[in-house]
Amino acid sequence: MARGMPGPVRWLFRCWCALSQYPVCCHPPRVQKATGRPSASTLDPVDAYRGAVVSIPENAVIAPGDTVRVQWAEPGSVGSFLTEVADSRLFNVPSTQIAQHFGKAIPVYYEVFENSADPPYRSDRHTLTILGMTGFPVVQCDKVSGAILSLQDIPEGGYAQFTLDSWSFMGTDQFITIDVRGVSGADKELLIVNVLDEYPVPRVADRIDAGVISKTDLKAFNLGTQLDVRVRVSFDQTLSWQSFPSLRPTLYP
After folding, report:
1. How far apart are the first and last CA of the chain?
2. Which of 100, 130, 160 is the endpoint of a domain?
3. Domain that holds residue 157
4. Co-location of 99 and 46 in the same domain
5. 215: part of which helix (H) or strand (E)?
6. What is the pLDDT of residue 10?
7. Residue pair 239/198 in contact by the 8 Å Cβ criterion
8. Given pLDDT bands bounded at 50, 70 and 90, which one contains residue 14?
9. What letter would DSSP give residue 34?
10. Domain of life here (predicted)?
């Protein structure tokens, strides 16, 4: 409706829109491949493996010469992203800004910069829910074979080593915590041995080292019982943790 209007007329029109909440002025953006309503939708992260695309609706008031930028998540929050200002209706959000929002809802909106106008005007918010991920790898141990961890396979003073295969949206801004749980051989109570504690992912690779546990520590568990090697990964700077599948070998002499 405002396309082609002279600058002052367009400015008055927008002011009237803001005062009257006339909907054409501030239609929220949409996220491509997300399903839902204009004001809220859900995105499967599998569909954003190479990033997300935010589109500005055609009925948004953007005149020739106006420029736009998109805000992804609350400014300053973990995983937020502010695009460059551009003369466009399509904006790319990189894949590195997806994982921080697994299982969360975030706002997405845009700002329009009109020539000689300051400050920009802001659209209504679109609430985007990003689903959680599945299919994470099971931690592996070099001394586990056929679901059995045998102490005799570890030399005195030696270690069992853990590794993790790569996962979707793996990044060096993520953290790993691993511990081994089982029944104590001394008092039959729960015994927990920490392997990694908020350890930064060292690199993106097909497989990474994920700590060790000593034979001495393993001897403290009750023989013939099952161990639980638990892995948790944080995608949002340790604000929350995603559990990976556990490795559950039985400990033998």
Report:
1. 79
2. 130
3. 140-251
4. yes
5. helix 215-219
6. 52
7. no
8. low
9. -
10. Bacteria
